[in-house]
Amino acid sequence: MWAALGKYKSIVVSIALFLLLDASVLALNFYISFKIADDAVGVNLAGRQRMLSQRTVKSLYELDSAPVGSEAYQRALQELTLSYTLFDRTLTAFDRGGLTRGADGNEVLLKLVESADGRQAITDAKQLWAPYSAAIRAVINSADLGAAQTNLAQAISLAQANNVPLLGLMNQLTVDLEHVATSKATTLRYIQTAGISLAIINFLIIIFHFLSELRHNDRQLEAARQETEEILDTVSEGLFLMDDQHKIAGQHSASLPGMFGRESLSGTVFTELIKDLVKPKDLQTAERFIALLFRPDVKSNLIQDLNPLNEIELQIPDQNGGHRRCYLSFDFKRVLSDNEKNVLVTVKDITQSMLLAAELEQEKQRNEQQMEMLTGILHTNPEDLAGFIAKSFAGFERINKILKDQSKTQGSLGRKLEKIFIEVHSFKGDASALGLESFADYGHQFEKRIKELQDMDTISGNDFLGLAVHLEGLIKYTEDIKGIADKLAQFADVASAGGDNKAPQPASSGKWQKLKELAELVSQREDKQVHVTLTGLSEHPFGQGVEALVNDLCVQFIRNAVVHSIEAKPQREEARKPSYGRIDVQLVELPSGELELSVTDDGQGIDYEKIRKRAEQNQAWSQAGVQQWNQKQLLKLIFEPGFSTADSVTTDAGQGVGMNVIKQRIVDAGGKLKIHNRTGAGCKFVVTLPKAAESELAA
């Protein structure tokens, strides 16, 4: 090995001596520095002994002047105890070595004082302190008033005699410790001066050897560098070598820095270069892949398919302080030379091809969305669709007005969210009832965004900007649907006017048939089987306001019954019920002229214990109080905003807003709501609407 060094032997020896010298000086520096730090603590605590001696005398005089047993007496006694204990403990630590409390209140270790002057000061101090200490302990431990006064007089007498000598001895100890620390600091300076001088001499020797070798090598390297630069300046791809430390080599193609928006890349760790430009998951995968490239037992041609950077999106900083999106492709090839392992990395900018592919994918999605819109229109009764669109635009207008409301307090902002939630929930229910799943999904995403804001500790007006953007998208989508529906209606009119051969019209299953379709959709999502019967809905002519209210009530009650009450097929068979759950919707006009809407199911009914358990989990009510609630009190919870017994949030349940909305709608119409529940046998909701309901809703 020594022979292999050749002409570099003298340089290696010089460097080794330089490192050995530096290590020796550094070790001595650390050793003496720690000693000086210990001495500094000792000097500080020796100085504190003088202060403690004075505090002890002060406390004795305060005890003498204060009435025995008074608050002032107790404070002085406490101060005396603290000062005495700390002085005695520190003096013992100086004498024998040990722990005491430092100036910062933490325990510190004092080594015993070894200097002659310091030992003499401590010995003399102990002789003075021994009788003085005994008198102070007698004062602290006095059991009766007479003994306390006698002991106090004796302690004060000893304080008068010994305090000044003690102060002098502690001052002598402090001065001695300072001399010791100063001596060590002087020694440290000598060592540092000698070490630096030798290091400079050694360094000059190393520089001399290096310069002579570098002059020769530079001439050879310059010729090779010029040839390499000519190649790297002409290629359009990014080229660079990466060593086994994942660092980019000094030479790379001229196009590489521009790809990453940086001026210099030499010596940069490749993973550090891309860590702020790619997703954390992609970065971890890339690190594992690159590590495999440097393993000799892994064949590179077998792992090329694992390359996670084959096509990757990056956010590159631009000159304006922003970021531009681009797509790069990285190719890795092993390069072996002189037992060194390197990887040649080729980087290609594939932004244009990726953007073209993304544009084609977006066009495909738009086509699919339009097909979904067309399919939904063709399967929906034209009158129902037109009514839904008109009602939706009216709801959008109300949401827009709510968003424009200049609320500032947290309470008003919260109520603002609740109002928007009610409108969106009503929109989603109408869409589900007509089988317009794309609209229902839009509404569900809207609800999720509102719920996120409601769960925030504090909200501001700026937080509503996202809702405004979501509303704008929903309005645009609804306008597209309306445009397609209008065109289809025009085609139907033209075909109808063309002669006797009329275009076939979609079969109408009745205005209220959509409720059965809603039940079918929800039951499929819940993996249940449900049969719905409708009675009296088509037999009662009423205005648009009451019709919309009855529709909304039926939608919510049916969805609520399917999700929460009707059991799945195995549970129904176990309870000896028919596999199909039954929901009966009935509308009758009472002799008083009032309308009575009832929705009855044969499911498991309302689970009061599940409501109680959810209430116990809610911090709004005390757990002990919930345990005492009766069924009537528990039943009221299903109408509380945000309260739900659903295990998770879905399109049909979990938001805790449906029943609250229904209750508010009934109250606004001047109606009444009754609930008849039979646990295990079913539940019945009865809504009574007064004669004036139409005028109230119209207002």
Q: What fraction strand?
A: 5-15%
Helix amount:
55-70%
- Please give the radius of gyration in angstroms: 44 Å
Mean pLDDT: 79
Point out poorly predicted stretches: 500-509
Distance between the termini: 100 Å
Number of contiguous helices: 22
Number of strands: 12
| Anisotropy-based shape | flat
Strand order across the largest sheet: 4-3-7-6-5
Helix/strand class: alpha+beta
Question: What composes the largest sheet?
Answer: 5 strands, antiparallel
How would you characterize this protein structure?
By secondary structure, the protein is an alpha+beta fold. It has helices spanning 2-5, 9-65, 71-96, 116-140, 145-232, 256-260, 270-274, 280-293, 300-303, 351-378, 382-404, 410-433, 437-454, 465-497, 513-525, 544-565, 569-574, 608-617, 623-627, 631-636, 658-668, 693-698, and strands spanning 98-101, 107-110, 238-243, 248-252, 312-317, 323-337, 340-349, 530-535, 581-589, 595-601, 672-678, 682-689. The protein has a 5-stranded antiparallel beta sheet with strand order 4-3-7-6-5. Strand 11 and strand 12 form a beta hairpin. Helix 12 (410-433) crosses helix 16 (544-565) and helix 16 runs antiparallel to helix 21 (658-668). The model is unreliable at 500-509 (pLDDT under 50).
Topology:
Blueprint: H1 2-5, H2 9-65, H3 71-96, E1 98-101, E2 107-110, H4 116-140, H5 145-232, E3 238-243, E4 248-252, H6 256-260, H7 270-274, H8 280-293, H9 300-303, E5 312-317, E6 323-337, E7 340-349, H10 351-378, H11 382-404, H12 410-433, H13 437-454, H14 465-497, H15 513-525, E8 530-535, H16 544-565, H17 569-574, E9 581-589, E10 595-601, H18 608-617, H19 623-627, H20 631-636, H21 658-668, E11 672-678, E12 682-689, H22 693-698
Parallel strand pairs: 8-9
Antiparallel strand pairs: 1-2, 3-4, 3-7, 5-6, 6-7, 9-10, 10-12, 11-12
